[in-house]
Design a protein that fits this description.
It is built from 8 helices and 4 strands, in the order ααβααβαβαβαα. The protein is of the alpha+beta class. The radius of gyration is 18 Å and the shape is globular. Bound molecules: flavin mononucleotide. It comes from Nocardioides daphniae.
C-alpha cells in the first residue's frame, strides 16, 4: 500500500523534464497493461491506445497545439496573460512517445450496463485508464504529461481515428530528469491546490461563498 500512495503523491504532470531516452518494451507493456486493467462501465473497456513515435506526426501535432495555445492566450489579459506566457503546456517533441487514449461510445453496445442514465460514464472509463497509466508510469520512474490543447477533429484526422471515436488525451510519456515536487501551475502562480477540507461535504452539498 505504501507503494501506491508513494506513486499517487509523487505523480506530476510533466512538461519540461523529459529526456527523450527510450522506454524498454517490457516497461511500456506493463504500463499499458495497468491502463487496460482499469474499471469501466458495463466492462465496456471503451479505450484504445495509439502509440505515436513518428517525428513528422508529432511535429504536426506540436504545431497544432501551438496554435491552440495562442487561441487560449488571446482570451487572457494583464496578470493572467503574463503568468500564462511563462507556462509550458506540453512536451510533445521532447518526450519519448505520445500515447493517445481514445473513447469509443459504441464499444460493448448497444446495451452498456450502467450507462443508460449517464452517457458520460463511458468517458469516465477512458479517464480511469489514463489515471492507471499515469500512476504506473510514475511507479516505473517515468514522467507523463496530459495535453488537451487540441481540436478533436484535428487529432482524428492526423491519426486516422474514426469520427465516432473521441481522442480523450495526448499523453507525453518517457524518462525524465526529475519529477517536480510542486505542480507547474502552482509554482508559476497560475492556481494553487485547494485544501481537502474544502472539498469534503457531510450529508449535504454545502455551497460555499
Ligand atoms: C483533463 C486534463 C487535461 C490537462 N491538459 C493539460 C494540458 O493541455 N497541458 C498541460 O500542461 N497540462 C495539462 N493537464 C495537467 C494539469 O495542468 C495538472 O494536472 C495540474 O496542473 C495539477 O498538476 P499535477 O498533475 O502535477 O498535480 C491536464 C490535466 C487533466 C486532468
Amino acid at each position: 500500500m505504501t507503494d501506491l500512495y508513494d506513486a499517487i503523491f509523487r505523480r506530476r504532470d510533466v512538461r519540461a523534464e523529459f529526456t527523450g531516452e527510450p522506454i524498454a518494451d517490457a516497461t511500456l507493456e506493463r504500463i499499458l497493461t495497468a491502463a487496460h486493467a482499469a474499471p469501466s462501465v458495463g466492462n465496456s473497456q471503451p479505450w484504445d491506445f495509439v502509440l505515436v513515435r513518428g517525428e513528422e506526426t508529432r511535429r504536426r501535432f506540436h504545431e497544432h497545439v501551438a496554435i491552440e495555445r495562442e487561441t487560449f492566450a488571446s482570451t487572457l489579459e494583464g496578470e493572467r496573460a503574463a503568468t500564462f506566457s511563462r507556462i509550458k503546456v506540453e512536451g510533445i517533441l521532447e518526450s519519448t512517445l505520445g500515447v493517445v487514449v481514445t473513447y469509443d461510445a459504441e464499444r460493448g453496445g448497444p446495451a452498456v450496463l450502467g450507462r443508460h442514465a449517464i452517457a458520460d460514464a463511458g468517458l469516465y472509463s477512458s479517464c480511469l485508464a489514463i489515471q492507471n497509466l499515469w500512476l504506473a508510469a510514475t511507479a516505473e520512474g517515468l514522467g507523463m504529461g496530459w495535453v488537451s490543447f487540441y481540436r478533436e477533429e484535428f487529432l482524428q484526422e492526423l491519426l486516422g481515428i474514426p469520427a465516432s471515436v473521441r481522442p480523450v488525451a495526448w499523453l507525453c510519456l518517457g524518462p525524465v530528469t526529475q519529477l517536480q515536487e510542486v505542480p507547474d501551475l502552482v509554482r508559476h502562480g497560475w492556481r494553487p491546490k485547494r485544501p481537502l477540507a474544502e472539498a469534503v461535504h457531510v450529508d449535504r452539498f454545502r455551497v460555499r461563498a
